[in-house]
Amino acid sequence: MTIREQIEQMEIENLSPYACLSVKSRGRDKEEPQCDIRPVFQRDRDRILHSKSFRRLKSKTQVFLTPLGDHYRTRMTHTLEVSQNARTIAKALRLNEDLVEAIALGHDLGHTPFGHAGEFLLNEIYEGGFKHNEQSVRIVEKLEKDGEGLNLTWEVRDGILNHQTRTTPHTLEGKIVRLSDKIAYVNSDIDDAIRAQILSEDDIPMELRKTLGFTTRERLDHLIHDIITSSMDRDDIVMSPETAQAMKELRIFMFQNVYKNPVAKGEEVKAKTMIKQMYYFYMDHIEQLPEKLLAMLEQGEDKGRVVCDYISGMTDQYAITKFKENFMPQAWQVDGY
Q: What is the 3-state secondary structure (H, E, C) of the chain?
């Protein structure tokens, strides 16, 4: 019996009857030999972790565009916080931690530079529409490894695609990531907003603080415990009605006071202008895209979609650099002067 088979057997013996077992996976689009050490979801986690798209998350905006400070969240630190929250919940409920971690690490791979501002702009100007969750799946299926994709399992791709509020994953592990994403970004965004001095703890309505907690630490502790308690021995991942309502009201509060705050979002108009101009520039100068993307055009891919692939894959700083190259006058000199 291989090490992988031993781990798979431990899953069968120890995990909840509601867990998604590695041996029960629907598999990959392209069949491949099994690893002798790692079950399928663990392999998926490793593939995401070692991908170029994952590494780029460290230089993509979470909420605050190009903040002056080392302690503001980036898209990568957010991803790691989601992963940790999700693993804590999965372990307590005896669900599949490897599947949870793979989904969590991959859920935001498709985010544009400059946070949701870039996503909203591409969705407006590209007739095919642009959503970061769908782009995340496109990355792991088609764009990574120069067009080969990562060949992830169906369950991981399903969790990545359906991590947003308006969708529902088909596994409990996916549902854990879906809730963990919300509790991670709301609480970290509060922490960053306080650091930026556009919000204080006292600004949060007292009733919400009484229900959820008076600090970021207390709120995370309460929310994670509530999900575990409410979901124990159930074929679903839920919050208690009181906590779910408080969380909903806290998100509304954040939209009103942070996500639409002119101080926090003051640079978004510039970011949207940059992305819009670059989109039309590359539509008119498609030959300037990397060769691997041009090859996709030859295979019949939509031109606007491929331009979206290129722009959405940029980090914040790379987008600024390319904008300067394409639209700002460059210094020049004549030999001898």
A: CCHHHHHHHHHHHHCCCCCCCHHHCCCECCCCCCCCCCCHHHHHHHHHHCCHHHHHHHHCECCCCCCCCCCCCEHHHHHHHHHHHHHHHHHHCCCCHHHHHHHHHHCCCCCCCCHHHHHHHHHHHCCCCCCHHHHHHHHHHHHCCCCCCCCCEHHHHHHHHCCCCCCCCCCHHHHHHHHHHHHHHHHHHHHHHHHCCCCCHHHCCHHHHHHHCCCHHHHHHHHHHHHHHHHCCCCCCCCCHHHHHHHHHHHHHHHHHHHCCCCCCCCHHHHHHHHHHHHHHHHHCHHHCCHHHHHHHHCCCCHHHHHHHHHHCCCHHHHHHHHHHHHCCCCCCCCCC
Asked if 253 contacts 188 with a C-beta cutoff of 8 angstroms, the reply is no
CA-based end-to-end distance of the chain: 74
Summarised one tens digit per residue, pLDDT across range 222-259 is: 999 999 999 999 999 999 999 999 999 999 999 999 88
Closest CA to 138 of 124, 152, 125: 152
Torsion of CA 272, 164, 246, 91, to 10 degrees: -130
Classify the phi-psi angles of 225: left when phi > 0, otherwise alpha if psi is within -120 to 50, otherwise beta. alpha
287 phi and psi, to 5 degrees?
-65, -15
Q: Contact 110/139 with Cβ under 8 angstroms?
A: yes
Q: Residues 189-227: pLDDT tens digits? A: 999 899 888 899 999 999 999 999 999 999 999 999 999
Residue 5 identity:
E
Rounded to two decimals, the pTM is 0.95
Q: Which of 6, 240, 236, 271 is nearest to 112 (CA)?
A: 271
For residue 90, CA distances in Å to 4, 21, 120, 153, 238 come to 20, 13, 32, 19, 13
